[in-house]
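A favour, since you know our structure tokens better than I do. Just paste the record in under my message, thanks.
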Amino acid sequence: MPEIPQKTEYLIGVDLGGTKILAGVFTPDIKCLGKAKVSTKAVRGPDAVVERIIRCVQDAIDECDLDMKQVRGVGVGAPGAVNTDEGRVIFAPNLKWENVALKKALEKELGLPIFVENDCNLCTLGVYETELEGRPRHVLGIFLGTGIGGGLIIDGKLYSGFNRTAGEIGHMVIEVGGAKCECGNRGCFEALAGRAALFKKIQGAVRDGQKTVLTEMLGPSLEDLRSGDLRKAIKRGDKFVEKVVEEAAEYTGIAVANLINILNPEVVVLGGGLIDALEDEMMAIIVETALDYSMAGTTRGIEIRASKLGDDAGITGGAVLARAMTKQ
């Protein structure tokens, strides 16, 4: 662990996901000192999830042998549409949340300034500030986790749009009449290439008699299926799993091409748990498909890359947000 300065005010980044909550403690120059992780258990409802966020923050602080009084602010990334002014989660389909006053609930319990933003906006901000060192003027972040989200840096600043909900690329429809999405629509990018969608597709095929080494590894129900298991199955020669992952990569490439045609960013960064686990299996297909589907001339000089921050992108962005919002 890095040496902890004595007179520094610390920052906390929280990544609230559909399956897990991650909290990290950072120095003002965005060096991570320690982390904690708990499962989200979204089925228990918003109040229970808020309690789990608080526990995760306290665990992260304990991990660093610090006190809550040494913390300057907390940046929280929540999945879905967020009213950043009020710190309210308007709609988070993967959590089954509507109109949840997250900032108010956390400030009441933690007694700290809380700043709430869309999780993928924060992931993009984290990658932009640390990995890309704030250099490109226009960046598109795409994050494949339980669902799929995105973030936009335009002219060097996080772009939120008119209603502060820009970047919901997971709900861009890329297959009319396609698979049902948690948001209520059909054929959303998320419903075709998100981790939950892939797992659902695999489990459905197994129920219909599809053979896969995953059942040997995990049992017939596949209830403990993880992204890394897909990589292991492909390495063991499982053609079915390989095809499912390739299809997801192709859908992602098509989404990237659409967004390049519309936004023409300098850099496209892909991250999230799915990319983290399956970068070798997916990135070449994503890039090739994106180049195939982009309009001629639009991709010249554009870099399409996987983030190296992995799971830490969200908490890093949370710390960057907390630093910006608490500058004295």
